[in-house]
């Protein structure tokens, strides 16, 4: 049996880790543990499920064609069809996933946590962070305007937001930016 913790590292089926574990360590059973099985898109979900049970989940193209509306929540899709595909996907995944939420564990008496304490500390951006942040906004302005008019997809917006978050964390990974 193959047990993999932090399985979110396997969300890219083209990664070296994914292929080495799948091809060189062939096991009759595979168990993945992750706190984020569905984080970004259906391709990542398929990669995890296909890693565990390739004969059940088939090719990426088959999976995406079956659940394409569930992965696209933009306004151009039929809301009823999207809802139905999400319901079907949850039903199928229910057979393969054990989802233990904090509320369920408290309900069973298996979790005793101290009360949550949150402290908000406002930390202003340093000059370089501000410059990188504004540079990203200027560079991505056409995409942001396209999204607001409904002609761009949600994934594009998520990518822009992720870049902005990275700039807030630390500006140095943006080697393309020269102050």
Automatic annotation (TrEMBL):
* Domain of life, source organism: Eukaryota
Q: Supply the alphabetized keyword list.
A: ATP-binding, Nucleotide-binding
Nucleotide-binding among keywords? yes
Domain Helicase ATP-binding, by residue range, is: 1-55
Keyword Coiled coil included in the entry's annotation = no
PANTHER family in UniProt: CHROMODOMAIN-HELICASE-DNA-BINDING PROTEIN 1-LIKE
Q: What is this protein called?
A: Helicase ATP-binding domain-containing protein
What is any one GO biological process for this UniProt entry? chromatin remodeling
Task: Output the lineage of the source organism.
Answer: Eukaryota, Viridiplantae, Streptophyta, Embryophyta, Tracheophyta
User: What are this entry's molecular-function GO terms?
Assistant: ATP binding; DNA helicase activity
């Amino acid at each position: 049996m193959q047990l993999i913790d932090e399985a979110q590292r396997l969300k890219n089926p083209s990664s070296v880790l994914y292929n080495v574990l799948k091809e060189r360590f062939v096991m009759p059973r595979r168990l993945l543990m992750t706190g984020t099985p569905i984080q970004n898109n259906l391709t990542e979900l398929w990669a995890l499920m296909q890693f565990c049970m390739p004969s059940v989940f088939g090719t990426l193209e088959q999976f995406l064609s079956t659940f394409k509306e569930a992965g696209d929540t933009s306004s151009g899709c039929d809301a009823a069809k999207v809802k139905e595909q999400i319901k079907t996907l949850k039903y199928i995944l229910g057979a393969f996933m054990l989802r233990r939420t904090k509320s369920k564990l408290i309900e069973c008496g298996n979790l005793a946590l101290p009360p949550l304490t949150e402290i908000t500390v406002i930390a202003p951006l340093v000059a370089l962070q501000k410059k990188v942040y504004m540079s990203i906004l200027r560079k991505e302005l056409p995409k942001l305007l396209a999204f607001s008019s409904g002609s761009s997809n949600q994934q594009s917006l998520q990518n822009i937001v992720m870049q902005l978050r990275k700039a807030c964390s630390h500006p140095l990974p943006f080697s393309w930016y020269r102050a």
